[in-house]
Amino acid sequence: MNELLLKYGCNPNQVPSKIFMKNGKDLPIKVLNGRPGYINFLDAFNSYQLVKELKEATGLPAAASFKHVSPAGAAVYKELSDTMKKIYFVEDLELSPMATAYARARGADRMSSYGDFIALSDTCDVQTAKLIAREVSDGIIAPSYTDEALEVLKTKRKGNYTVIEIDENYVPEEIEHNDCYGITFEQGRNNLKIDKSMLEEIVTKNKDIPESAKIDLLIALITLKYTQSNSVCYAKDGQAIGIGAGQQSRVHCTRLAGNKADNWYLRQHPKVLNLPFREDIRRPDRDNTIDVYISDFSEDVLNDGEWENFFTVKPEPLTAQEKKEWLKTLTDVALGSDAFFPFGDNIHRASKTGVKYVAQPGGSIRDDNVIETCDKYNMAMAFTKIRLFHH
Predict the structure, then answer these.
(1) Domains and their CATH numbers in the chain
(2) Chain segment 21-39, per-residue pLDDT in tens
(3) DSSP-assigned letter for residue 154
(4) Which of the residues are catalytic?
(5) Of 185, 173, 189, 194, which is closest to residue 338 (Cα–Cα)?
(6) Rounded to whole angstroms, what are the CA distances from 142 to 49, 123, 136, 188, 228?
(7) Do 128 and 157 form a contact (C-beta atoms < 8 A)?
(8) Is the whole model's pTM more than 0.90, yes or no?
(9) Fewer CB within 10 Å, N side or C side of the chain?
């Protein structure tokens, strides 16, 4: 089969719609369940490339959570601490390495991952399927599925959950095309291999980038390769913790991604971990409530009695000073950028989120200012000399 008809394009008024192979070859995918749409496939193909490259770069099972053709989260396998299991809502599950990678990818920004498209680098096993089954998600792409996992996934969305199997040996054509306004664009495929060799030119006084930080920088850079530009990614402990995508200003990318990383870390604050939720609060509502609690849950809300909608007893607010003190304990964060930092303001903002390691192309006329700012915060920064725009 070299073409597949879709329900419609990006929007319901955009018909007809299909995917097909221009060279007449068979499509490298099989739809095992559901009826994927145009955006589903854009998410599927971009996210699978990301996890495939993460697996190749690190040797570890990788997972991604995609929304609107950019990652909400990406991660490789690394054991979860009890705290991380709690904030990712997986305390009650037995997690395989593949399931752990997805729990990390999903858990980085759970609000953005609501209704995500999932990509796995390896076989979807039943532990991963059981985790996916209880989250709100649109579909999944993986190279294979166990029979038991497939049966679990087929129960989602009243039997209509999208399950795509992709040939892991598929090699795309070197030249790719895209149409816009009736005009066809052509370019060479971005088959750039991202590996540790890109981190060898360290331009700061601090030259120390340990192996764990190199893995985090690779995760950030590979994630950026498949994130709508401009984009910046913060990573720590084997996962992206904050992704800023599609902003016209780089410092706004840095702020957006930094705010998401801050929120990820604030979810680990003891006050948040011990919030007295009512038992009837669903996970998505719990996520929203935690976000409100962290951002602007004030005495006014408490005094108005709104807390009763969420909690069994009246919680204390998380004060601005408490948040500030907690964020000071966030350290050893890695930061990647898809193009050069034009000014040191990006580094100033990154320092507030515990960034210690930076990877960016370099090449700005203000590189000296950026390096000087990194030195001020004792950061180690590598110039990759590779731009990673994605549109």
Answers:
(1) 3-171 (3.40.140.20), 176-266+327-383 (3.40.140.20), 270-317 (no CATH)
(2) 988 899 999 999 999 999 9
(3) T
(4) 67-68, 230, 391
(5) 194
(6) 11, 6, 18, 25, 22
(7) no
(8) yes
(9) C
